């Protein structure tokens, strides 16, 4: 039994996919399958079975994987002690981040973290929050920074840590007839042609989930490009909802004006999210603390 075999079976259990586990383990799919098969032969048991939901552990496989996770946790603790002593972290972090966050908080967070730990490779995917949560649940991302509706029921397999709370404002062009008003009623905002940020052709974005609680709304565009989203707003083709902490960012664009919602508080929560199946390494915890330090300055008060 080799240590990497324990990592391999845990990766498959976390992702439910041999191909995704192989990608995360930086080996080929045949090599990963061979590694697991050899371990099954050595142990004399079947660790996984194929189902309609993907590759799932057998009953005895689940017990073995739990022990493997405990062994890996112990190994990571040993590594953490060494890293704390040498102060030289290495490895990779896979992040899934909401675009509103990537254009603000993450700019300073990544710069600060890389200055402190140049040996750590940070891979950041920018995507819509619901899509990011699916990537986290599938083991494609170690953790994410996402937006959620306040009071929304949490998924049982996810760990959620709130960074701060905010509320949505309406973004319009400086040439819009609404631009000089400062605030608009929600129903008037919903009547505007809207652009929503969507990724991978999914339409169940977190903004949609929040708005549909308040009635019908008019979607003109669904885009997965943040610069294009800014352009269509600036050209007065549509409006968009965004968190209030982004107001200065959009005001600096010169062509976009944020408006408060006069009669309704569209409260949202900016959170760290990771799956309970994933053991947070020391470098991941350090990255989280860096993100938290910059987020603490953005708590909305109003």
From TrEMBL:
Family annotation (SUPFAM superfamilies): Periplasmic binding protein-like II, Winged helix' DNA-binding domain
InterPro entries, per database record: HTH-type_LysR_regulators, LysR_HTH_N, LysR_subst-bd, WH-like_DNA-bd_sf, WH_DNA-bd_sf
Keywords noted in UniProt: DNA-binding, Transcription, Transcription regulation
UniProt xrefs under PROSITE patterns: HTH_LYSR
Domain HTH lysR-type: 1-58
Pfam families: HTH_1 (PF00126), LysR_substrate (PF03466)
The UniProt record lists the keyword Transcription: yes
Family: Belongs to the LysR transcriptional regulatory family.
Name of the protein in its database record: LysR family transcriptional regulator
Organism for this UniProt entry: Paenibacillus phytohabitans
């Amino acid at each position: 039994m080799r240590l990497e075999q324990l990592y391999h079976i845990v990766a498959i259990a976390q992702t439910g996919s041999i191909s995704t586990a192989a990608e995360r383990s930086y080996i080929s799919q045949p090599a990963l399958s061979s590694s697991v098969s050899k371990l099954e032969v050595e142990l004399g048991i079947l660790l996984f079975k194929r189902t309609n939901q993907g590759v799932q552990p057998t009953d005895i496989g689940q017990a073995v994987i739990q022990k493997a996770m405990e062994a890996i946790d112990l190994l990571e603790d040993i590594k953490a002690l060494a890293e704390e002593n040498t102060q030289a972290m290495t490895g990779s972090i896979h992040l899934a981040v909401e675009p509103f966050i990537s254009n603000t908080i993450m700019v300073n967070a990544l710069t600060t973290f890389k200055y402190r730990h140049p040996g750590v490779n940070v891979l950041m995917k920018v995507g819509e929050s619901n899509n990011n949560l699916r990537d986290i649940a599938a083991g494609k991302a170690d953790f994410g920074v996402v937006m959620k509706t306040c009071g929304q029921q949490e998924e049982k397999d996810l760990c959620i840590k709130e960074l701060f709370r905010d509320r949505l404002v309406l973004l319009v062009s400086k040439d819009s007839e609404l631009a000089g008003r400062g605030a608009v009623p929600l129903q008037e905002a919903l009547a505007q042609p809207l652009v929503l940020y969507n990724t991978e052709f999914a339409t169940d974005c977190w903004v949609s989930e929040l708005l549909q609680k308040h009635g019908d709304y008019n979607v003109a565009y669904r885009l997965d490009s943040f610069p294009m989203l800014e352009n269509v707003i600036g050209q007065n083709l549509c409006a968009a909802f965004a968190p209030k902490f982004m107001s200065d960012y959009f005001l600096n664009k010169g062509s976009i004006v944020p408006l408060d919602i006069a009669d309704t508080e569209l409260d949202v929560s900016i959170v760290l999210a990771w799956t309970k199946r994933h053991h947070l390494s020391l470098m991941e915890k350090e990255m989280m603390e860096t993100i938290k330090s910059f987020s603490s300055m953005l708590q909305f008060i109003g």
